[in-house]
Amino acid sequence: MIMLGRSREVSMMPLMQPDHVVLQAPERLISEHRLDFRRDALERLSKAAADGAQRITIDLRDTREVDASGLGVLVLLQKRAREIALSTRLMHTPPTVRHLLHLTQLETLFEFDD
């Protein structure tokens, strides 16, 4: 697990499948915290593609708050992943986040693993 700043972290979880990378989203995916997560997630995305991964999963199990800028980061990650032929999956998506994705019509951009 890699700590970002004070209390934010991105985690590369060990996986059974080498074609798959998991990122741990922060508890608050809001404007104040998005830049660190965005930077590190994009770096991990590039590394995953270089290592031959086929999918990136963003684990939202600890995420309690998302604002428009947080949604923007998720969309950016999905777009960049698609550009390099990676699928993007959201895992453990809290009902409030899933509802927000539905209301903003962004739900169709992602695969879900809940």
Under the CATH scheme, which architecture would be assigned? 2-Layer Sandwich
Structural class: alpha/beta
| Shape category | globular
Mean pLDDT metric: 85
Helix % is 25-40%
Number of strands: 8
What count of domains describes the coordinates? 1
Largest sheet: 4 strands, parallel
Strand content: 15-25%
Number of helices: 3
The CA-CA distance between the termini, in Å, is 22 Å
- Give unreliable regions as ranges: 1-16
CATH topology: Transcription Regulator spoIIAA
CATH class: Alpha Beta
Widest beta sheet: strand line-up: 3-5-7-8
| Structural Rg | 13 Å
Order of helices and strands: EEEEHEEHEHE
Give a written overview of the molecule.
It contains 3 helices and 8 strands. It is 37% helix and 25% strand. The model is unreliable at 1-16 (pLDDT under 50). The longest helix is centred in the middle third of the chain and has 17 residues, at 34-50. It has one domain: 2-Layer Sandwich (Transcription Regulator spoIIAA). The protein has a 4-stranded parallel beta sheet with strand order 3-5-7-8. Strands 1-2 form a two-stranded antiparallel ribbon. It is of the alpha/beta class.
